[in-house]
Amino acid sequence: MSSDSMDATTHDLPERAEVLIDVPLGGFIKRDDAGRFDYISPFPCPFNYGSVPGTVAPDGDRIDAVVFGDKLAAGTRVTLPVRGIVDFVDAGREDPKWICSPEPLTEGQRRIVTLFFVSYGPMKSALNLVRGAFGKTACRGVRLVR
Questions:
Q1: Which of helix, strand or coil describes residue 110?
Q2: Domain layout of the chain by residue ranges
Q3: Which segments in the chain show pLDDT lower than 70?
Q4: What is the dihedral sign for C-alpha 116, 137, 67, 40?
């Protein structure tokens, strides 16, 4: 993705977002909206992970969100500033992840997000192949905007 299209994506980020937590900090299991197993991680999630109710990402699901801060239980709703975006593509479809945090991210937190999604890409790509979904799956970068 060119930096121009990345800028267009980040330009549209809201100041704040309500996030429904799916995977607590340290969790291993991500479920879909029906409660079925979607993904089991080989390592614990280094942040809370969820989705933004009332949104639709280009892949047809709600926009995913990374949430820094204290561990939050699955099902918790929290409203936080949107600090940036993970530019991710899943089986050839745009699948952005908003980065939310009460405070601006540190350089260490930015590295954690980048490392997590760069590592997640190949694992999700393999899972997609098993599920019959083809197309590129990868992290193309992390952009902080606030």
A1: helix
A2: 3-144
A3: 1-11
A4: negative
- Both tokens of 131, joined, read 């599920």
Amino acid at 93: R
From the candidate CATH numbers 3.90.80.10, 3.40.50.720, 1.10.101.10, 2.40.40.20, the one assigned to the domain spanning 3-144: 3.90.80.10
Burial of 142 from C-beta contacts in 10 A (0-12 / 13-18 / 19+): buried
| Structure tokens, 10 | 């980040």
The predicted-structure confidence for 86-120, as pLDDT tens digits, reads as follows 999 999 999 999 999 999 999 999 999 999 999 99
Taking CA atoms, 134 is separated from 87, 98, 125, in Å, by 18, 24, 8
Residues β-bridged to residue 17? 80
Instruction: Return the closest-CA partner of residue 87 out of 19, 17, 20, 138.
Output: 138
